[in-house]
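Lecture 7 notes: from sequence to structure.

We start with a single chain of 444 residues. Read the sequence below before looking at the structure.
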Amino acid sequence: MTADVVIIGGGFAGLAAAASLARNGAKVLLVEKKKFLGGRVYSIRDRRTGDWIDNGQHALMGCYHQTFDLLKEWGTEDGVLLQPQIDIPYRGAGGQRDRLRGRSLPGPLHLLGGLLSMRSFSWRDKWAAMRFGMQMKRKNAVKPGETVQQLCDRLGQPALLQRRMWGAIALSALNEEVAQADASLLQTVLQQAFFSSAADSRMGLPIVSLQKLHDEAAVDYLTQRQGKVLLGRRADRLEWKGDQISAVILSSGERIPCGACISAAPAPALAKIMQASQLEDRVPVPDLGASPIVSVYLWYERSFSDEAFCCLEDCAFDWLFHRSNFMAPNEHKTHCVCLLASAARRLQHLSRDALIQTAIEEVEKTHPEHPRLKPASASVFWEPHATFSTTPDQVKKRPGAQTELNRFFLAGDWIDVGLPATIEGAVISGNKAAAMAAAMATKK
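Now the structure, written as tokens:
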């Protein structure tokens, strides 16, 4: 078994790299240690209800251009539903409600119109938000090493606005508490997702289980182009001489000669491979920390809201998704909701039962129209290593795709592509590594 390029890791970074190379005629072999693709974007069947549920509710945005290009290649783009305009309902623990609804105007005026119509912010808050937005369009608005909290304080953002607007965006997009999160990444998110075109700021929700967005479609795409996918096979080490990678050795003992190799594995897994290959000095892998996400799924006998989702204010959880209101027919047998908490260290002391009870109470507190029915079933997803920790110190340590070794490249949402750890960041990193590998191949 040989390959022009071996790709280690079958998450979105590895899948993007494989698709890019296969599209251009390379013979690709993708190795994934799990028995399914997707990395940290996957689905399992809930043993109580029989429904397929995701490892937390994932959301995309209209600015995920390279992600949507990849889904189109696979033929699964219809599995994501994009809003016509940005439209984010807010619900508070006291039953208060508000809504950020974009207007039919060019960006960023579409967002300004939505902000001005929000009831929970005073005119002072709205004027402060407009000043903040104008500052974020400046190239050097963020000071080196500045956190989101420090940035908001320096630019005079009121506490309510920090908590319900910039803090909510930072927590969700960067998966880190605002007192620790890197402000430069927030600026990038705001510029690309909210302050550009109206189309880019729309939220997109998968309407099928995540596994249906990739998995078989990605495998079919590769095999039709002379590629191959090995599932349930772990890459143990690399074989090399001088500056050249010559083969990948699997845990099964198989040796796969290759012209180039892309590692799309998570940082801890890559560190083990480098150590086993005696390459830890040549390809140092930084410890970027980890930030958790916890999701609680609840199944009710009947619906109690017509919303697709809402942002929760002053609650333990950050978002509530009414999955049955946007998922394709038959994806859920009864009304399924998912509550999600980013940077969820604040909840890690709670047991499974306590997390479920907290979620139930927050559904009831934020939905006064709720009939006080108890859920028929519940499930908890705890992802302790959902993303790297986006503190300024950790962000500075992110490596690029190029390594010291000839024809060995890195990809993944932890690689430095200027974005936080998102699906789009993973796809961009995979495409970048693939372009480098293809360019090296032409120099043979």
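Residues 423-441 form the longest helix (19 residues). Keep this in mind for problem set 3.
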